[in-house]
Write a structure and sequence with these properties.
single chain, alpha+beta, 5-stranded antiparallel sheet
């Protein structure tokens, strides 16, 4: 489709989805008269509606879909009416969620109401199709039911959200359902648990995952890789505390601008000293900079740290390893002079791109230039002039580096603009994996200085950056990217050795020990089970290599190699196998 044609198609599809959300609400209201209506918008893959006092299971989906089709076939008009706030409150007096929304509007507001048939009214701006008959060819399918807090706040009541896939084209619906079935196979929250990578426990708490041995091993491999690469690029490792007094956060501005997102230890009204777990590392690493006087000759000064952070995320935002309350991040802060800024920013970006390419995530990344919202002034520190200068400087750098970014108004940190490198999960939800930020403000907050060539005192520019971002989130994306079949160098176990009989156990142990001396991660299955059963088990574990050792291999000093994804077994000399294996590990091959 041409661009204009595609835009018209998307507008039409959104209008149909919006209309269908009303049909869903009407169907459920007729089938379950006691329910209360909340909201029901169109979304990228269809629409949903939130209800109170509704309990459904999958057996109900088909009945609701039939009811929706019955309503569509009545050929009822969508009629738009404008009413006053008082009139709207009277019309929806039995719908508490609607009246709450109406009450939030000004007394002189004009409110639009749509009614379908004679008996169903809903608040809505529209637009809708003129008559339900136009929806007959619309393809839809109820996907799932989940809980959703009213207005997204855990302080409010949990409602029942009914999700429905909806497309103008029947084939589009069919293809999308197939994509979602494939996504389910890759969903890290499901697959990660099945493969024994991580788990959670109610007695520990939401957003606090437990990395099992396989997951912990992958994180360890990533951390060693990142820290070694950062060291090669001139970064200096620090180790700072997990908590600090509120005094530190008051200097940085986190206490005033981020306190609701922090875990505070103590009560300011009662305790002499109040502490908080750190939500980020920057104010801690600034103390390393302030440890001694600085000269322009010391700059750029690059500090990196593998930092465990704590953020009090809303319960409704938690998702597997992607959004958690405790996480570990590849964080760094770089102090430099103005004339070093672009080159150092480029170096941070090159490091991030190198990481993404090595991990196989580069093609999935997109870029967002996150800017401040001048209409929400209380969210930020600094003057308008400082923000304009920081953003114009960053725009100049991004344009010069030819970064294909989109703009996100209001997405900046409270102290500066940033480049967010975004990745979508298998369900299409986009989150930030890596950030690079320019900061002119916190150096002033912390009185950070350096002596310039002319002997004057100046403030350094600060770059906040991550190299692969949050390790837990990175692990989640890797599980989904590779469907749990990690590249050899990242696989928690690289070789599984299986014996044909007990007679081959000593040879299997010998081969395993030789590989372990090379640093290879090896497991042996010496159980007295059938070879077929042991192979099936090893395949399900997604081991990159399975070695099947019998009398023939033992006599000839060879190994029968079954590579992941293949049903065939290839006989190789031990030396050739080791050479192939070590090449994949040392080159960090994605094959």
């Amino acid at each position: 489709m041409e661009k204009e044609e595609l835009e018209l198609f998307n507008q039409k599809q959104e209008m149909y989805r919006h209309s269908m959300s009303h049909i869903l609400a009407k169907a459920i209201k007729e089938m379950y008269p006691g329910v209360k209506l909340a909201i029901g918008p169109a979304v990228d893959n269809g629409f949903y509606y939130d209800f109170d006092n509704l309990t459904l299971n999958q057996d109900d989906f088909g009945k609701i879909e039939d009811k929706m089709r019955e309503i569509i076939n009545k050929n009822e008009d969508f009629v738009r009416t404008e009413v006053s706030r008082d009139k709207a409150l009277e019309m929806f007096k039995d719908e508490p969620y609607k009246t709450e929304l109406i009450s939030e509007l000004s007394a002189d507001a004009t409110i639009t109401v749509y009614h379908t048939g004679e008996d169903f009214y809903d608040l809505c701006r529209g637009p809708h199709v003129e008559n339900t008959k136009y929806l007959r060819g619309f393809s839809f399918k109820i996907n799932r039911v989940s809980g959703a807090y009213w207005k997204g706040s855990e302080k409010n009541k949990m409602l029942t959200r009914v999700y429905v896939y909806g497309f103008l084209n029947k084939d589009d619906l069919k293809n999308y359902i197939h994509q979602m079935e494939e996504a389910l196979k890759r969903d890290h929250n499901k697959l990660g648990r099945e493969l024994g990578i991580f788990t959670t426990a109610d007695v520990i708490g939401q957003g606090l995952p437990i990395l099992l041995p396989k997951g912990a091993r992958i994180i360890q491999l990533l951390q060693r890789f990142v820290e070694d690469e950062e060291q090669r690029r001139g970064w200096l490792l620090t180790k700072t505390p997990f908590m600090a007094k509120s005094d530190l956060y008051k200097i940085s501005g986190h206490w005033d601008h981020y306190k609701d997102g922090m875990f505070v230890l103590g009560d300011e009204n009662k305790d002499k000293e109040v502490f908080a777990l750190r939500p980020m590392t920057c104010p801690f690493q600034y103390q390393a900079y302030l440890n001694e006087p600085r000269s322009y000759k010391d700059l750029p000064l690059r500090y990196n740290e593998t930092s465990t952070l704590f953020r009090n995320e809303e319960s409704g935002e938690m998702h597997g390893l992607i959004r958690v309350r405790q996480f570990t991040i590849s964080e760094g802060h770089l102090m430099c002079t103005p004339d070093q800024l672009e080159q150092e920013f480029k170096g941070c970006l090159e490091l991030a791109i190198y990481m993404l390419k090595t991990l196989g995530l580069y093609e999935d990344a997109s870029y967002r230039f996150s800017q401040w919202d001048p209409n929400n002034r209380e969210k930020y520190i600094g003057t308008n002039e400082q923000w304009e200068e920081a953003q114009s400087t960053m725009k100049k750098i991004l344009d010069h580096l030819e970064i294909p970014y989109k703009i996100g108004i209001g997405e900046a940190a409270f102290y500066g603009p940033k480049l967010d490198i975004q990745i979508k999960n298998v369900w299409g939800k986009e989150d930030t994996l890596i950030t690079i930020q320019i900061d002119q403000l916190l150096a002033e907050q912390f009185d950070m200085e350096y002596t310039d060539k002319d002997g004057t005192k100046k403030r350094p520019y600060i770059i906040h950056r991550t190299s692969i971002g949050c390790y837990e989130r990175t692990l989640a994306y890797l599980i989904e990217k590779f469907a749990g079949a990690f590249p050899v160098w990242l696989s928690p176990n690289q070789v599984k050795i299986i014996t044909v009989s007990e007679n081959n156990n000593d040879y299997a142990t010998e081969v395993a020990n030789r590989l372990k001396l090379k640093g290879v991660r090896v497991e042996t299955d010496l159980d007295n089970e059938s070879v077929g059963k042991k192979i099936r088990s090893a395949v399900l574990e997604k081991n990159p290599y399975i070695l099947v050792l019998g009398d023939k291999e033992m006599a000839e000093g060879t190994v029968a190699v079954r590579k992941r994804g293949s049903k065939d077994t290839e006989t190789m000399s031990y030396a050739d196998f080791e050479k192939e294996l070590m090449e994949k590990i040392t080159t960090k091959s994605l094959d």
